[in-house]
Write a structure and sequence with these properties.
Number of strands: 16
Radius of gyration: 41 Å
Number of domains: 5
Distance between the termini: 105 Å
Largest sheet: 5 strands, mixed
Structural class: alpha+beta
CATH superfamily of the largest domain: Ribonuclease H-like superfamily/Ribonuclease H
Shape: elongated
Helix content: 40-55%
Length: 516
């Protein structure tokens, strides 16, 4: 509580002139005694009169000596030590008294760090929540690099903080600036520093190889020295305050396009903290010729992971399954991935190529891989139908489990549900399956009834399904020609009438069968 100046003046006058005690001053001025003590303490004048002895006074030399040696020792632990030496006061009051005797830390002064143009840049990650893609919830990480002299910012968002994304951010900044500084300053990031013991540092070998390729010096900041990387810390705070609030975007690519436009627009038009007479853009024009030139060949930035193929022709990479030819089962392959494409190699041979998915628990398949397996194993057809059903209608898993408990034929149910998917669509069948589960009827008829109810409520016409497989089957039907030798019996005069009649009846019967 802040007291008025006239009240503080009265406290000092009553104490030093009238020789009133603290309690008397507090009662007469209708304020708390702690406020009186604070005013007297801030005035820096010694108290008049002999103060009352406290239980803690005999232990103050021990307390001062202990806190001088261990300044961060907790009051609760110090109370136990003093209690063992005969102190009888309460722990709460002791904690209050120790707070007055604990040595105050001396604030440290810092020099303003100055850098030359093209000499240094600072690098760090920033966390900006999560991005939901399908069933996957991925962290949205921002790679930030700042030139220490011109303060130009490079911002690039990614869905992880792996080494490959870390290095892609570097290359993006170098290509955007048309060069790179001589020194890159890192915090104690896991992407950069594997281990640190005092001043001894073990950098990540991939980062050292990358730094050697681009010919710059990686340099970590000292422990507990946040001022050494204050430029990138302020840049991340500037991004949170100026770029990120109320930002809407459709996907990661759209967000990065907006980030590039912001870095080259609003962020470049602000005044340069190094020299307030020019903007960041004009300062970068002066700094850019001092940057190191880029090497002729780019550094490979693809992710390489060794994977083992199990009994099924799929490899697991980044929460998803990618198909391979069935001939690659029970082998160890190599996944080479970039942000757009996933390639699967057996030695130096590419056995499969897929678009990369950032969803979760998805099966990315090449139809030829599965078709080959279906031809080889006839039983794979039923499993393929169930796999297709569970991918299209996730709620069907629970429906089939409950139907299996009732003794239903799972193969027939799968075929019936797939026909409903072809007729009504995935979303409609998903809603109908949930309705059937809610009613406690795990059967395709209940799903069909729910679909018809939905259609009737929406006043929609019945869906028309065209089964191409049936049309193809009728088109490819083999027609056997009629045997002509039976007609020779009609011209044979030696056949008696009874045999002729019998032959005609036989021919008539065969003709009827052929016509059918």
């Amino acid at each position: 509580m802040t007291l008025a100046l006239d009240i503080e003046a009265q406290i000092l006058r009553y104490y030093h002139v009238e020789k009133w005690r603290n309690g008397t001053i507090a009662r007469q001025l209708h304020i708390h005694h702690s406020s009186v003590e604070r005013v007297l303490r801030q005035a820096g004048l010694p108290r008049i009169g002999k103060s009352r002895l406290s239980r803690i006074d005999p232990y103050l030399p021990f307390i001062h000596q202990t806190l001088e040696k261990f300044p961060r020792l907790t009051a609760s632990r110090l109370y136990v030590m003093v209690r063992e030496r005969g102190y009888t006061g309460s722990p709460d009051h002791f904690r209050h008294l120790v707070s007055h005797h604990r040595p105050r830390p001396i604030p440290e002064a810092y020099l303003r760090l100055m850098t030359l143009p093209g000499e240094q840049a600072q690098v760090d990650w920033g966390h900006f929540g999560h991005l939901t893609i399908g069933r996957a919830k991925r962290p949205l990480m921002a790679f930030v690099m700042v030139l220490s002299w011109s303060r130009r910012i490079f911002l690039r968002f990614s869905l992880d903080a792996r080494m490959e994304s870390f290095l892609r951010g570097h290359v993006g900044a170098f290509e955007t600036w048309g060069g790179l500084p001589r020194v890159l300053l890192y915090d104690n990031l896991k992407s950069a520093v594997l281990e640190r013991q005092g001043d001894a540092i073990r950098f990540h070998p991939t980062l050292l190889e990358f730094a050697g390729h681009y010919r710059y010096e990686p340099r970590p900041v000292a422990v507990a020295r946040g001022n050494e990387k204050g430029r990138v810390e302020r840049a991340i705070r500037y991004i949170r305050d100026n770029f990120w609030p109320a930002r809407s975007y459709t996907d990661l690519d759209d967000l990065n396009r907006q980030a590039d436009a912001w870095c080259q627009g609003i962020a470049d038009d602000r005044l340069c903290p190094q020299d307030r007479t020019m903007t960041v853009k004009s300062a970068f024009v002066q700094e850019q010729p001092r940057l190191l030139a880029l090497p002729d060949n780019p550094y490979p930035l693809e992710e390489r992971v060794a994977v083992t193929v199990g009994k099924t022709p799929y490899v697991r990479f980044d929460l998803n399954d990618y198909s391979v030819p069935y001939t690659q089962v029970r082998q160890t392959l190599t996944v080479v991935a970039d942000p757009v494409q996933v390639r699967i190699l057996s030695g130096l041979t590419v056995v499969a190529t897929h678009p990369r998915s950032y969803d979760k628990a998805k099966q990315i398949e090449e139809p030829a891989h599965i078709d080959e397996l279906i031809k080889r194993k006839a039983q794979a057809h039923a499993q393929k139908g169930m796999s297709r059903l569970t991918q299209a209608v996730p709620a069907s898993v629970q429906l089939l489990e409950q139907a299996a408990e009732r003794g239903e034929i799972i193969g027939a149910m799968t075929s019936a549900l797939l026909r409903l998917v072809d007729r009504y669509g995935q979303d409609e069948v998903q809603a109908a399956v949930l309705t059937a589960l809610a009613r406690g009827v795990p059967h395709p008829n209940a799903v069909r009834f729910a679909l018809e109810t939905q259609r009737t409520n929406r006043h929609q016409p019945p869906p028309v399904a065209v089964c191409l497989s049936e049309l193809a089957a009728s088109r490819d039907t083999v027609v056997k020609p009629h045997r002509l030798d039976t007609y020779d019996q009609l011209t044979n005069n030696e056949i008696n009438p009874s045999q002729s009649d019998k032959s005609q009846q036989t021919n008539q019967t065969k003709g009827d069968q052929d016509e059918c």
